[in-house]
Amino acid sequence: MSIAITTQFICFTVLTLVVIIGALGVVLLESIVYSAFLLGGVFMSVAGLYLLLNASFVAAAQVLVYVGAVNVLIIFAIMLVNKKEDLKPIGDIKSRRIISTSICLTLLSLLIRVDLTNVWSLSSPQNSIGEESTIRIGEHLFSDYLLPFEVASVLLLMAMIGAIVLARRDVLSKDISTGLPVDQELIEKSSEPLLTNKN
Amino acid sequence: MNLESIPLQAFLIVSSALFCIGIWGLLNSRNAVRVLMSIELMLNAVNINLMAFSSYIDNNLIQGQVFAIFVITVAAAEAAVGLAILLSLYRNRVTVDMESFNLLKW
Question: Is residue B3 in a domain?
Fold first, then answer.
């Protein structure tokens, strides 16, 4: 990385603040739509952190896959299921919150303690391959990681077929076991057609 | 403070915080879509960890970056299948409240 160290620190601080505050917004905000868009911001800042770590290929993959595909998919899901509903109140919500927050804080302190006390065997930065990382990733994918690469393609195919099978509407006109006709009415409320003639 | 570069611990602490925020959201969300978003946050935290280790400890053979790419692949498949399951559940229950999905409760 050829950027000056001061610039690196400023970039790291800004990206970290965006990641942490954005993630807190994702889990805490009332409106789920705001959460989804903040999630996109978090993904973009994580891609920035990857760039700070000399990994331009993974940063590009992060932007393409997460921001371009996963986030758009989540926004579409929100659009499809976004119904205003009053959630039933839970009686012991306060004790649940206290227990889960204490568990998370304990885990966080444990992880930070491990991060700070363990002695990492850092390699010398002279060995860094820097901008050649894309070439090296390609060599890995087609030599020693060839089997996981092929399995990943089968996994993506299975996920695609599974998503289609799960998400499509039932097209059977008869129930298989009873033979009765299946109710195929859409569950969405029938809406007024747009552009109707009011006069 | 005279440092040559950002310390590895800084990246590790960021990813720990992101992971714990994800767990908190996973445990406390009532909306099923938000649960999926929390899972994505946790996967991103793991990816930051892998990338930091690959850059600081294994910066010649960058195997961590290859693993990060596989994690991104699996996360994309998981998001697609998870949202399809969510749509199917919504069609059956007409709600996204996590408290009403108790089909497997005895």
Answer: no
Cβ separation of A74 and B33 shorter than 8 Å? yes
Residue B8, chain A, CB below 8 Å: the answer is yes
Reduce the DSSP state of residue A111 to 3 states and report it. helix
Evaluate if residue A83 carries a pLDDT over 90: no
Which of A82, A115, A146 lies at the terminal end of a domain, its last residue?
A82
Is residue A54 left, alpha or beta, with left meaning phi > 0 and alpha meaning psi from -120 to 50? Answer: left
- Would residue A48 count as lying in a domain? yes
**What is the pTM for the complete model shown?**
0.85
- List the single residue in A with minimal CA-CA distance to B53: A122
In a domain, A23, yes or no: yes
Closest chain A residue by Cα to residue B78: A159
Name the more confident of A68 and B5: A68
The answer to whether residue B2 is domain-embedded is no
Rounded to a whole number of angstroms, the distance from the CA of A179 to the nearest CA of chain B is 20
Q: Are the C-beta atoms of residues A9 and A43 closer than 8 Å to each other?
A: no
Cα–Cα distances (Å) from B64 to A6, A58, A124, B53, B57, in that order, read 26, 10, 17, 7, 10
Q: How far apart are CA A64 and CA A53, in angstroms?
A: 18
**Chain A contact probe: residue of B5, B12, B15, B59 with most A CBs at under 10 A:** B59
pLDDT tens-digit series, residues A182-194: 555 544 444 455 5
The ipTM, to two decimals, is: 0.92
Inspect the interface and report whether the beta carbons of A81 and B44 lie closer than 8 Å. Answer: no
CATH number of the domain that B55 lies in?
1.10.287.3510
